[in-house]
């Protein structure tokens, strides 16, 4: 499994954990195009923070490198890393070499 797929797996696991806590009608689709943040977002702000914390922990566990997804760099991107599952995956993969 390559790094991109491993990161995607970590994000999917975080979304599955979130879905376990949500009512059936509020569950989030687990797909690369799932909108995480923005006007058409599937997640509310509390759910997004929960997913981010789980993803950061998963990345640290899997790669032995800490990444902070709520830092100035993430917030200053022209396209938010939190737009979709795919944008978050790509952002994390880009951050791993520097971590």
Your description of this structure?
By secondary structure, this protein is mostly helical. It has a single domain (3-98), classed as Orthogonal Bundle (Non-ribosomal Peptide Synthetase Peptidyl Carrier Protein, Chain A), CATH 1.10.1200. The chain is built from four helices and no strands. The longest helix is centred in the first third of the chain and has 19 residues, at 3-21. The chain is globular, with a radius of gyration of 13 Å. 21% of the residues are buried.
Give the SSE layout:
Layout: H1 3-21, H2 45-63, H3 72-75, H4 85-95
Helix pairs in contact: 1-2, 1-4
At the first level of CATH, the class is Mainly Alpha
Shape: globular
Sequence of secondary-structure elements: HHHH
Class based on secondary structure composition and strand pairing: mainly alpha
Low-confidence stretches: none
- Overall mean pLDDT stands at 91
Largest sheet: none
The rounded Rg comes to 13 Å
In CATH, the topology is named Non-ribosomal Peptide Synthetase Peptidyl Carrier Protein, Chain A
Total separate domains: 1
Give the amount of beta strand, in percent: under 5%
Distance between the termini: 20 Å
- Helix amount, in percent? 40-55%
Which CATH architecture is right? Orthogonal Bundle
Count of DSSP H/I helices? 4
Q: Can you count the beta strands?
A: 0
């Amino acid at each position: 499994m390559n790094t991109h797929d491993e990161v995607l797996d970590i994000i999917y696991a975080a979304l599955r954990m979130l879905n376990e806590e949500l009512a059936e009608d509020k569950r989030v689709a687990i797909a690369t195009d799932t909108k995480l943040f923005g006007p058409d977002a599937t997640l509310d702000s509390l759910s997004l923070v929960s997913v981010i914390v789980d993803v950061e922990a998963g990345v640290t566990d899997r790669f032995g490198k800490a990444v902070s997804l709520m830092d100035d760099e993430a917030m200053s991107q022209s396209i938010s890393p939190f737009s979709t599952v795919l944008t978050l995956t790509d952002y994390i993969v880009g951050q791993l070499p520097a971590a």
